[in-house]
């Protein structure tokens, strides 16, 4: 299985959060994890990059989204500037506006759960 460089957007150091679980599971499945969030800390052996600094990240396969729709608009330009091959909208993050913007730029859009996709071999 090929490793897919994945940005976990909305990364959290809270072990009860799905973003935390997903980052660790991605690592367990041998994908390169790039956690980006607003809280400092470490997740899946990686320092969380500060979303407010809009870090530049190259060669992204997937952004897995853990930001609620109400928190997404201010980050649209940044998310799209990363030029991922696809964006996974995890449950509760679905947002028609961002999905349409991504599709217009040729970015694949998936509505699904990263955890389920990994476990079922659909990642």
What is the number of helical segments per DSSP (H or I, 4+ residues)?
4
The CATH topology comes to: Rossmann fold
Query: What's the architecture, going by CATH?
Result: 3-Layer(aba) Sandwich
Secondary structure: number of strands: 8
Pick out the low-confidence regions: none
Structural class: alpha/beta
Average the pLDDT over all residues and give the rounded result: 97
Please state how the strands of the largest beta sheet are arranged side by side: 5-2-1-6-7-8
Biggest sheet record: 6 strands, parallel
The helix/strand series, from N terminus to C terminus, equals EHEEEEEHEHEH
The portion of residues assigned to helices is: 25-40%
The CATH H-level superfamily is NAD(P)-binding Rossmann-like Domain
Backbone shape: globular
- What oligomeric state is this? single chain
Rg, rounded, reads 13 Å
The termini sit apart by: 10 Å
Q: How many independent structural domains? A: 1
User: So what's the CATH class?
Assistant: Alpha Beta
Domain CoA-binding: 4-118
Protein name: CoA-binding protein
InterPro entries: CoA-bd, NAD(P)-bd_dom_sf
């Amino acid at each position: 299985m090929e490793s897919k460089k994945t940005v976990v957007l909305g990364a959290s150091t809270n072990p009860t959060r799905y973003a935390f679980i997903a980052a660790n599971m991605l690592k367990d499945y041998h994908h390169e994890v790039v956690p980006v969030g607003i809280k400092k800390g470490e997740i899946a052996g990686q320092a969380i990059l500060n979303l407010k600094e809009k870090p530049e990240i190259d060669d992204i396969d997937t952004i897995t989204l853990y930001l609620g729709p109400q928190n997404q608009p201010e980050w649209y330009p940044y998310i799209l500037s990363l030029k991922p091959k696809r964006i996974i909208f995890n449950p509760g993050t679905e947002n028609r506006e961002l999905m349409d913007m991504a599709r217009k730029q040729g970015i694949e859009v998936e509505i699904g759960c990263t955890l389920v996709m990994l476990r079922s071999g659909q990642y």
